[in-house]
């Protein structure tokens, strides 16, 4: 397609994708508690409010803690599994790969409801730890996919070379496999972290009545009308996501992570 | 390194934790949910173990028929909108400079990861009377006074398309990036214009990918839960909304579980279709 | 005895036999090339020596000790892989020091050894470079240095030069051979390139279909091939049917007096190298043929002649350029001493 049409099409899609964010960014700098666009006056006060208001601050910390812990647990599940599937020939073990991918592929309400019935039946319903485990299971797909991709990109002759030089399995893992898989480990963590930060329904169904994460807090606030803090929190979250994915792109190979083969393959 | 079958029991060591976690916290909850779907509801808000089909029988009402029909219709519409927008876009993106690609991918991932709550809030703002898009139209003199565009079906559809579009692009991206660029070059040496070669070469070559993506986006859209609530009227609520409503507010876990099981069956059926479409694609 | 001994080594993958009953002795300090077309089992044989694959039958002994089931990392090997397998996350120096590091050798000693090896491969001062920044030939040398870091008992190389361009490859062949002679290390190279094998090896082992067809010195392999496969695989040759009765042998309808045929052999094949085929005026030789094509390569001239329904090729040097052109009749001289008689 010719250059002009292409630019115009990119521009339209770009506008569609950025319009809501632009409007919300505008709303977030209103001076008074107005829902107005273009903004009336200019103030960054609503960004301060996220940290000054104890409810918003607690929700933010709850979300970040949840995301940090659940992404770590997801990684602990995904790493040994992906390693095993790469290292060993055991076709039946692929069932676990499938189990790891299912929670994220099914409509989220199903995973959420399954976990709700489970936590209610076992008597742990409402405890903070249940949300960490629930999110770890829900998002294990992401590190599992990046790590599987990472392992498949390791030249197996590197492992053989290490063995001929006298390294046993454990040493090979520590000195060769782990350093090479590290970028995929980090991006898997980043993906799980950002999505956990934003997740609503699983968190709501597991700890919704005892704790507030930020998405839950926004939704609850939305029911009682409007406060500009929602807008500033939204922009904060967009910024966090863009920063993290930007860093992944800066230090890793984003097109390859998303399935484009590098020219070498 | 040859991949050997595990020899000793300790070779299975790495599987213990992942398998344990996935079985305990995914398979068991899933099984619990299926079991509960056959339980009898207790008026006190709980349920008693039983084996009844009445939870499933409740679907057969006109009301749930309508909700299910609307959910499927909405998801199909969203999927089609996304495919129509995303296929040309992803094709152009896959041919763009690497730097351009990376920038778009970062933007798409950021939007994809945004909470449904946030997307719902952003679009409700955009569609509102006081801060919405209509204010711009008033400034441009197209409208006399700003109006609220939600709640409405159009608002739900737009926001859901917004939510699913990055997903669609990212699902299409690998297939399009790997598409042999000499295909279109060959078409052009044979006399096809760029646009013609896109429709006569790229689209047919990707037919199976597009069908598979359509189904994946459909499933993705089926899971949308908050947008119909925030931007739509009650008649725009989907099965996902009803499941949550029954589970949390009506305390009817058996019925919610039955609906969820039903949704899983629909989804699995579609995944099976995707796999079959993919197999055909490989054979072709 | 010292050196490597393979006794009746067999490897099966399912129903496919990759290596069949291989017997081979590699005396200490010799250079052996495993040569054959792809799929002949040479790489599998080397991988079994390295312990990367386990034989399904037979035994492998090193200096008299059975190592058949010793894991790779306890064999004290040095191996260069076809892909080189340099660790992309380590520098040149760290790659070379790897086997020392995991053996707990001290930092100072590691550095000393790395410097020594780098100067041996003419890359002094490259220790801190990332391997990705090296040229193909430099990476090759680093892989070799890395394999030699611990002074291994066995030095194995799997198609080590296949990624290099032709000129560099030839230079590296000479360098590798000189290095091996200086160190006196038992070396096995897998290659499909017969020139490479002839250049470097003390013993060339020709393999096909998982079996050893011939194991001998390069000149022996060339002058006295054991069978038609070896004759055809090593260099250019003419394979011609012959018939024999008690009194003599005939080739292409003409009798070749003096060709020594084993008693009782009625027919078979002779192999004669193109440089041993001499063209003369028609009538001066028992066989007459017609020139079909002349390929003048500058350094050598190949003349293709059709005689008795068979295509023959003769190679001559420029100073003995035959004065022939396409379509011309020529006499073909085959001296019995140049012919190798093979069973068909």
UniProtKB/TrEMBL annotation, chain A:
Compartment list: Cell inner membrane; Cell membrane
Keyword Electron transport: no
Ranges for domain ABC transmembrane type-1: 60-248
Stored InterPro entries: MetI-like, MetI-like_sf
Lineage, uppermost ranks: Bacteria, Pseudomonadati, Pseudomonadota, Alphaproteobacteria, Hyphomicrobiales
Family: Belongs to the binding-protein-dependent transport system permease family.
Organism in which the protein naturally occurs: Shinella curvata
Protein name (database record): ABC transporter permease
Keywords for this protein: Cell inner membrane, Cell membrane, Membrane, Transmembrane, Transmembrane helix, Transport
PANTHER family: INNER MEMBRANE ABC TRANSPORTER PERMEASE PROTEIN YDCV
SUPFAM superfamilies listed in its UniProt record: MetI-like
Coiled-coil regions listed: none
Transmembrane feature ranges: 9-29, 59-86, 98-120, 132-151, 172-195, 201-219, 231-252
Predominant localisation class: membrane
Membrane topology, record value: Multi-pass membrane protein
Automatic annotation (TrEMBL), chain B:
Signal sequence coordinates: none
Membrane topology note: Multi-pass membrane protein
Source domain of life: Bacteria
Keywords, alphabetical: Cell membrane, Membrane, Transmembrane, Transmembrane helix, Transport
Record-annotated membrane-spanning stretches: 12-39, 59-90, 102-123, 153-177, 198-227, 255-278
Domain ABC transmembrane type-1, chain residue ranges per copy: 68-274
Record's subcellular location: Cell membrane
Matches recorded under Gene3D superfamilies: MetI-like (1.10.3720.10)
Database matches in CDD domains: TM_PBP2
Pfam families: BPD_transp_1 (PF00528)
Homology family: Belongs to the binding-protein-dependent transport system permease family. CysTW subfamily.
Name of the protein in its database record: ABC transporter permease
Organism: Shinella curvata
Upper lineage: Bacteria, Pseudomonadati, Pseudomonadota, Alphaproteobacteria, Hyphomicrobiales
From TrEMBL, chain C:
One of the Pfam families matching this protein, by short name: ABC_tran
Keyword Iron: no
Keywords: ATP-binding, Nucleotide-binding, Transport
One GO molecular-function entry: ATP binding
Highest taxon in the source lineage: Bacteria
Residue ranges constituting the ABC transporter domain according to the UniProt record: 4-234
Keyword Nucleotide-binding: yes
Family the UniProt entry places it in: Belongs to the ABC transporter superfamily.
Protein name: ABC transporter ATP-binding protein
């Amino acid at each position: 397609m010719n250059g002009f049409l292409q630019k115009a099409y990119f521009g339209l899609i770009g506008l569609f994708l950025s319009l809501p964010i632009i409007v919300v960014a505008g709303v977030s700098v209103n001076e008074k508690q107005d829902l107005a666009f273009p903004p009336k006056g200019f103030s960054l006060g609503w960004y301060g409010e996220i940290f000054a208001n104890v409810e918003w601050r607690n929700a933010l910390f709850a979300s970040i803690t949840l995301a940090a812990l659940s992404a770590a647990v997801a990684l602990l599940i995904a790493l040994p599994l992906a390693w095993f599937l790469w290292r060993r020939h055991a076709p039946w073990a692929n069932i676990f790969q499938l189990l790891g991918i299912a929670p994220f592929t099914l409509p989220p309400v199903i995973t959420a409801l399954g976990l709700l019935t489970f936590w209610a039946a076992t008597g742990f319903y409402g405890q903070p730890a249940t949300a960490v485990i629930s999110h770890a299971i829900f998002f294990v797909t992401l590190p599992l996919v990046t790590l599987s991709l990472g392992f498949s990109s390791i030249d197996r002759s590197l492992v053989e070379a290490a063995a001929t030089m006298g390294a046993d399995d454990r040493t090979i893992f520590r000195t060769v496999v782990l350093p090479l898989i590290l970028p995929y480990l980090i991006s898997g963590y980043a993906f799980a972290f950002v999505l956990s930060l934003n997740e609503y329904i699983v968190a709501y169904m597991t700890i919704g009545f005892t704790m507030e994460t930020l998405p839950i807090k926004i939704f609850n606030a939305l029911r009682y009308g409007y406060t500009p803090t929602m807008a500033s929190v939204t922009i904060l979250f967009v910024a966090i996501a863009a920063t993290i994915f930007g860093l992944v792109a800066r230090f890793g190979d984003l097109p390859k992570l998303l399935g484009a083969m590098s020219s070498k393959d | 390194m040859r991949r050997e079958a595990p020899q000793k029991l300790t070779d299975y060591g790495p599987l213990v934790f992942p398998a344990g976690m996935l079985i305990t916290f995914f398979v068991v909850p899933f099984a619990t949910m299926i079991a509960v779907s056959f339980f009898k509801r207790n008026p006190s808000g709980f349920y008693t173990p039983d084996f009844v089909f009445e939870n499933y029988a409740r679907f057969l009402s006109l009301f749930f028929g309508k909700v299910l029909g609307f959910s499927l219709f909405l998801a199909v519409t969203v999927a089609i909108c996304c495919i129509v927008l995303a296929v040309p876009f992803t094709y152009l993106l896959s041919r763009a400079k690497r730097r351009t690609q990376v920038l778009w991918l970062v933007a798409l991932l950021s939007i994809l990861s945004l909470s449904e709550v946030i997307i719902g809030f952003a679009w409700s703002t955009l569609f509102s009377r006081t801060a919405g898009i209509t204010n711009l139209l008033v400034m441009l003199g197209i409208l006399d006074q700003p109006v609220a565009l939600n709640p409405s079906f159009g608002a739900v559809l737009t926001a859901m398309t917004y939510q699913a579009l990055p997903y669609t692009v990212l699902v299409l991206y690998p297939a399009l990036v790997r598409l042999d660029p000499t295909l279109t070059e060959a078409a052009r040496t044979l006399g096809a214009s760029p646009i013609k070669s896109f429709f006569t070469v790229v689209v047919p070559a990707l037919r199976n990918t597009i069908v598979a993506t359509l189904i994946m986006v459909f499933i993705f859209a089926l899971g949308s839960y908050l947008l119909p609530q925030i931007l739509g009227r009650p008649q725009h609520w989907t099965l996902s909304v009803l499941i949550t409503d029954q589970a949390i507010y009506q305390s009817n876990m058996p019925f919610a579980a039955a609906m969820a099981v039903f949704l899983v069956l629909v989804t699995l059926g579609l995944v099976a279709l995707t796999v079959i479409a993919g197999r055909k694609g490989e054979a072709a | 005895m010292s050196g490597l001994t393979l006794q009746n080594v067999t490897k099966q993958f399912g129903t496919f036999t990759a290596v069949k009953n291989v017997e081979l002795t590699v005396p200490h300090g010799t250079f052996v090339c495993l040569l054959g077309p792809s799929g002949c089992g040479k790489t599998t044989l080397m991988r079994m020596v390295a312990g990367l694959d386990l034989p399904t039958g037979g035994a492998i002994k090193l200096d008299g000790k059975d190592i058949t089931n010793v894991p790779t990392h306890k064999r004290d090997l040095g191996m260069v892989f076809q892909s080189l397998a340099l660790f992309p996350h380590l520098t040149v120096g760290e790659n070379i020091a790897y086997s020392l590091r995991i053996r707990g050798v001290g930092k100072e000693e590691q550095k000393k050894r790395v410097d020594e090896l780098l100067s041996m491969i003419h890359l002094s001062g490259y220790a801190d470079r990332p391997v990705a920044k090296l040229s193909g030939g430099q990476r090759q040398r680093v892989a070799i240095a890395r394999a030699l870091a611990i002074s291994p008992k066995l030095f194995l190389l799997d198609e080590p030069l296949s990624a290099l361009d032709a000129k560099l490859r030839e230079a590296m062949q000479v360098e590798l051979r000189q290095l091996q002679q200086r160190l006196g290390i038992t070396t096995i190279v897998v290659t499909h390139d017969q020139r490479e094998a002839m250049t470097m090896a003390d013993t060339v082992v020709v393999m096909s279909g998982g079996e050893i067809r011939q194991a001998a010195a390069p000149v022996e392999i060339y002058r006295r091939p054991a069978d038609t496969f070896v004759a055809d695989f090593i260099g250019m040759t003419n394979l011609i049917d012959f018939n024999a009765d008690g009194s003599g042998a005939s080739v292409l309808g003409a009798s070749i007096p003096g060709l020594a045929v084993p008693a009782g052999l009625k027919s078979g094949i002779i192999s004669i190298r193109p440089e041993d085929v001499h063209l003369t005026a028609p009538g001066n030789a028992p066989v007459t043929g017609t020139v079909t094509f002349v390929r003048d390569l500058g350094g050598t001239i190949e003349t293709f002649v059709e005689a008795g329904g068979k295509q023959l090729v003769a190679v001559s040097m420029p100073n003995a350029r035959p004065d022939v052109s396409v379509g011309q009749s020529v006499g073909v001289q085959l001296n019995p001493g140049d012919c190798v008689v093979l069973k068909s």
